[in-house]
Amino acid sequence: MSITKLEAAPRIKRRVINRDKLEADIVAVAVKVFAESGYEGASIATIADQAGLSKQNLMYYFPTKQALYERVLDDVLDDWLARMESLGAADQQPQAVLRAYVQAKLKFSREQPWASRVYAMEVISGAQLYGAQIQRRVVPLLRKDIAVFEQWIAAGKIAPVNATHLLFAIWAMTQSYADFAPQMALVLNRKQLVKKDFDDAEQLIVDMVLAAVTVPAASKSA
């Protein structure tokens, strides 16, 4: 008995969904392995074993280690950039936008520590395998964000600041709560950071950022 197009469509859809889920499961394991071992130290065999698959089965979906590594970093960058989009709201009050931006970046560090670390390791190693993608995707967004700062400065909403380095400082402060979380936990004499640590960090970082962009009272009255 032949299968009609209407009968085949749901089966094809199920296969696509199942494939997407399996790939997502593989990537979820791979991001932790790459973060712990680095690109050179990680192996397809280890990732496959931890994902409950044979090496051959995993390689059906990701033929090479580099292909899997790039997929991991694609997903990391997708998530990271999505959380950065809040800064593009130039029509909102800068203080509210910057607070939301810091909150989003710290939330990423709290929810996706392995993703943050694997990205940091790639950058620290010179971004030899993923540098082109970072430049292609991050640089245009950074320029867009700088343009927002320039609009705020021109409108007198914030003090003149070096927007590029302010953003670098925010990235460094927020990402450190993922990349250096083990060191922070050791200093705090606990096994891991807790939500209160991130809440305290948010308050301090927001206060510092807002202090940097606040227009001096004399300038406002001039």
TrEMBL record:
InterPro entries according to UniProt: Homeodomain-like_sf (IPR009057), HTH-type_TetR-like_transc_reg (IPR050109), HTH_TetR (IPR001647), Tet_transcr_reg_TetR-rel_C_sf (IPR036271), Tscrpt_reg_YcdC_C (IPR013573)
Question: Which region is the signal sequence?
Answer: none
**Which GO BP terms apply?**
negative regulation of DNA-templated transcription
Supply the Pfam families for this chain. Answer: TetR_C_3 (PF08362), TetR_N (PF00440)
The record places the DNA-binding region at 43-62
The HTH tetR-type domain, residue ranges:
20-80
Q: Which domain of life does the UniProt lineage start with?
A: Bacteria
Keywords, ordered alphabetically? DNA-binding
| Gene Ontology molecular function terms on file | DNA binding
- Report if keyword DNA-binding is assigned: yes
Transmembrane segments in this chain: where?
A: none
Name of protein: HTH-type transcriptional regulator RutR
Q: Which organism does this sequence originate in?
A: Duganella phyllosphaerae
